């Protein structure tokens, strides 16, 4: 009922939370505050509950293993999504066109970019309008100077996941470059390469 009454409402994006603590936790998504630090690698998190899950990385725990390839995952939902690579299953269909997607987040991103002219989310600093709340969060870093992505090998901090992935590849030789077979351009994220390839194919992402 607190959510419906907007008793605990975010002043930045308008999201309503169930109580004061939930509102404080949500506020960190805008401020970039990450008060909980891993004692092993120094990586920081906005919520205490993320630490136990993260610690599995250091213990090498990946109990959910793919029966088709060698990949293993920390959580069961990650394996479920991964299996769609092998099955080709794309259960999320766009409401406006025939395109289908393997995850709901990819569907929402597609509909927001391609089919929606609605921009219900605004920046509390400059008033710029956005179609999705994650776009607002990313944009806010322009005003706050927040750099929530930190390198586990050095003191470098970065604004976006793409910048972090690229830094790890260039500075620490960690990860895998994704190379376009047409123009040989390299990318730090597979999704970025996929969007790039669609330009070669003349398809809107």
Notes on the structure:
- The protein is of the alpha+beta class.
- Among the domains are: about 1-55, Double Stranded RNA Binding Domain, CATH 3.30.160.60; about 160-205, no CATH class.
- The protein is built from 8 helices and 14 strands.
- The strands form 7 sheets. A two-stranded antiparallel ribbon has the order 1-2. Strands 3-4 form a two-stranded antiparallel sheet. A two-stranded antiparallel ribbon has the order 5-6.
- A hairpin with a 6-residue loop joins strand 5 (about 65) and strand 6 (about 70-75).
- The model has no long low-confidence stretch (mean pLDDT about 80).
What is the name of the CATH architecture of one domain? Answer: 2-Layer Sandwich
Q: Please state roughly what percent of the residues sit in beta strands, choosing from under 5%, 5-15%, 15-25%, 25-35%, 35-45% or over 45%.
A: 5-15%
Low-confidence stretches: none
Q: Helicity level, as a percent range?
A: 40-55%
Please outline the major beta sheet: 2 strands, antiparallel
CATH topology of one domain: Double Stranded RNA Binding Domain
CATH class value of one domain: Alpha Beta
Total beta strands: 14
**Gap between N and C termini, in Å?**
39 Å
**What is the tally of helical segments?**
8
**Category by helix and strand content:** alpha+beta
Rg, rounded, reads 19 Å
Q: Write down the overall geometry.
A: globular
Order of helices and strands: HEEHEEHEEHEEHEEHEEHEEH
CATH homologous superfamily assignment of one domain: Classic Zinc Finger
Task: Give, in spatial order, the strands making up the sheet with the most strands.
Answer: 1-2
Mean pLDDT: 81
